Amino acid sequence: MNNRLTIKELAVELVKSTGKDQESVERFLNEFITVISENIFTDRFVQVKGIGTFKIIQVEKRESIDVNTKERIIIPEHYKLTFSPEKDLKEIVNKPFSFFESIEINDDSDFPSVETELEKEKSIDEDADADDDAESLDTESDIVQKTVFIPEPEPRPVETTEDSIEETIEEVMIPPVEEEKETFVERIEPEVINEPEKPVMEPVIAKPAVDEIKEVKPEEKQEQEQRQEEKVVSEPIPVMNVFIEETFEPASAIEEEQEEFFNEEEVNHLNRNNMNEFSENRSNRGYGREREPEPRGNNNNTLVTLLLVLVVILIVALGSVVYIGRDALFGGSTPVATTTPPDVFTLPDDDTEDESMENDWGIEDEEADVIENPETNPTSESNVIANVQIKKGDRLNLIALDYYGNKLFWVYIYEHNKSKIKNPNSIPVGLELEIPAKSVYNIDANDQASLRRASVLQSQILSKYPSNNRYNSYNDPYGNPYNQYNNPYNQYNNSYNQYSDPYQQYSDPYQNQYQNQNQNQYQQTPNYY
Amino acid sequence: MKNKELIKELAGRMKWTSGEVSEMLSGLSSAIGSHLVERDTIHMEELGQFESRKKGERISVNPTNGKRYLVPPKLVPVFKPDATVKAKLKEIGR
User: pLDDT tens digits, residue range A209-224?
Assistant: First the structure.
């Protein structure tokens, strides 16, 4: 720390690292210096690999003012020695600060919006107040209205609601850390991820259809089976499957939100709860069944095609679901609602199954549990590529850089370990984190879309967990925008001196784990540490 | 003088192979780097000294879209030529 090293001390270290004897190393360094200082004057430039380039450049004569006498003087042309460090050396020297990235500064007008975003998220997370309910209802009715005004019942709604369906599907696929991710993630568009209210809205649309679903519930079981065997994709059948899957995912992923949402709403309270349970049960079963036959990773192709087919069906189906739901929603006379279920689900044994529905429920419940437990555990394990124990000085984004090749992807490490990490800005030392496989979150450092998704997620997370300085300063009543920005790094300026120890820790992971091709700047110089 | 020439020259003077020289140079560069990162200065007589300087954070503006960015602080390696070198530099001008 702030030592002044001479050649002799440097030589001692080189003896350790190269294995030469002290004397020859010292001689080498002296020769090195003389060669440089001689050649710098003959060649005007000396390039030393790993260190940098020394150059003698000419400085043109220029006018200046003497500081003392205030007279104009002319500084004659002269020469100066410049040194431009090589990239490698720069990076090594800057390692303590390497985790920083440039931050875009919003204008003054943008600060409030950040705060409101924060508030919004809080309110959704903690309790869905009346405002939020109203909002979501508004958006919901907007969408439903869209479909309602269209005269043609069957085909049209599908088209018009396609957008909203797409969105909901995409969303639905995001939260769970499950197998489906791998295949579905391709479809995800980053913009959609952010919208907090959408998931709430989705079950609302579905709600009105609950009654019909209950009635026809038993058939679907068989339908599913049939579908798997025959793959006869007649419209009515998938309606149920699809509907279930959709409602299931948000139900589990944003459980809290939904539950609260449901509690708030008094009308149809029972119905909804039933639906919630129901859809969970159903879909658990459905997933279990679908996943069972496939040996992990092997027939991905068939799975993909199957899922693609499912998605197409899903879009069609949700259209009709919305269509069905429309009537119930608007409380209009329900000729369609009453007629559709029989039409839609025309399958063999209606009579007996309808009555024994209640029994099925109980059985399914248990089935679902049994199936799910063995299924989910192995998936989560196979999706973990490494376990990392947090050391002093570790940072999520540095870990992400190690494993994924880009700092942005720390968000996925965080997502994966959400249960353990209370605040991504301060993680207790010694905590063991699981590093999810790239495929789980579709991580690709070369893919712009993937990066964008991560950065969207990052801003989402960061707004939830304001880093100590950056957001506190938003409350600064004096409102000098620049003052605020002096803060973020101040902690590092002050505590900078502490860094000398932690770096030593950084050096290990770089050497051992830098497998990523994109970030091979440290690989090129393996002798560094 | 390019790196190859430097290695050749040093190898000739030391009577080492160029492999040994380049190995020594890479050892040297990593030693310099690891000291600079700890804010040590490395003094080489009759040449100058290497040190690291901290550049403070700053706000830069992208001229095309006018967006402002907060650029983080960084440590940069710098080299300060020795007095003898400076004296020689003056001589060149004459």
Answer: 444 444 444 444 444 4
